[in-house]
């Protein structure tokens, strides 16, 4: 295992998806695939070494106990590529110095061309490749995903941030979370909960807390989220949102917590407590797993 292997995995994933989107667009089977995107976070623990590759706004948080009093220390292992971060904004400005619309603020959030909150992702082919996704005279992106055709350089990238480190005895847990989760819960809040609460069901606890925050922001009750229609749906070339749907409260959330317990022989044995709040489809999540539990 190496960081180069993880880089290549994401390169191959992006190439495969772009080809899939191109075939669907050219053959008029499902042209909306050209505006579908996702973050991609890959983590491997190999021979006591943590390897991470990230593209998008997911985060990896490493919790450690340090010092005489074993105080909690928190590290964000790799950057998230959210346009609210100053360093990401500077990258976009430097890559498109002559485009005054490279960053547009929409509802208090900075977005690439007013469309994407993240600068790197898998997919969103129409913002990376003019041909064939925007040169065609009949191109019509779904409402909320439209971009003018006057760009020469790709607006988005699939280049991952990669990282590796040897795990130490002082490092106690890792939290992996998708962007939808970190929009509602801070790094410190998540780390404190994992450090102080029982392990059983910890990832579900984090997701439920994030949903409670989402409800509070909308001045709703937690049960209002659970009773809301579960997702938007895709109709033709347009993304149609149900009134008061779950996606109006929060984005899809995936959380995995790994505890780093020492084995007698000195190796690292991850104890995984994972909870998935999405379904493996090209459509929006219907969050069925949470209701089942």
Automatic annotation (TrEMBL):
Gene Ontology molecular function: protein serine/threonine phosphatase activity
Coiled-coil annotated residue ranges, if any: none
One Pfam short name: PP2C
Domain of life of the organism encoding this protein: Eukaryota
Database matches in CDD domains: PP2Cc
PPM-type phosphatase domain ranges (all copies): 1-260
InterPro entries linked: PP2C, PPM-type-like_dom_sf, PPM-type_phosphatase-like_dom
PROSITE patterns linked: PPM_2 (PS51746)
Name assigned to this protein: Probable protein phosphatase 2C 68
Species assigned in the record: Cicer arietinum (Chickpea)
Gene giving rise to this polypeptide: LOC101509382
């Amino acid at each position: 295992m190496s960081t180069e292997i993880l880089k290549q995995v994401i390169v191959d994933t992006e190439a495969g998806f772009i080809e899939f989107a191109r075939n669907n667009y050219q053959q008029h089977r499902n042209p909306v695939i050209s505006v579908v995107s996702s973050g991609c976070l890959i983590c491997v623990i190999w021979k006591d070494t943590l390897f991470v590759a990230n593209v998008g706004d997911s985060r990896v948080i490493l919790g450690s106990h340090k010092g005489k009093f074993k105080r909690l220390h928190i590290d964000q292992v790799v950057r998230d590529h959210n346009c609210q971060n100053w360093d990401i904004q500077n990258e976009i400005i430097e890559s498109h110095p002559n485009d005054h619309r490279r960053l547009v603020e929409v509802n208090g959030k900075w977005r690439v061309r007013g469309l994407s909150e993240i600068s790197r992702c898998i997919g969103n082919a129409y913002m990376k490749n003019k041909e064939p996704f925007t040169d065609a005279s009949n191109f019509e992106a779904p409402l909320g995903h439209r971009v003018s055709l006057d760009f020469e350089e790709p607006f988005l990238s699939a280049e991952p941030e990669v990282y590796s480190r040897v795990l130490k005895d002082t490092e106690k847990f890792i939290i992996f979370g998708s962007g939808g989760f970190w929009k509602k819960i801070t790094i410190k809040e998540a780390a404190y909960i994992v450090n102080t609460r029982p392990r059983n069901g910890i990832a579900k606890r984090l997701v439920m807390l994030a949903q409670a925050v989402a409800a509070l922001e909308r001045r709703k009750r937690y049960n209002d989220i659970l009773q809301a229609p579960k997702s938007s749906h895709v109709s033709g070339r347009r993304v149609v949102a149900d009134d008061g749907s779950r996606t109006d409260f929060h984005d899809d959330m995936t959380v995995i917590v790994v505890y780093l317990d020492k084995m007698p022989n000195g190796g690292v044995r991850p104890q995984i407590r994972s909870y998935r709040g999405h379904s493996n489809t090209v459509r929006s999540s219907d969050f069925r797993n949470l209701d089942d539990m």
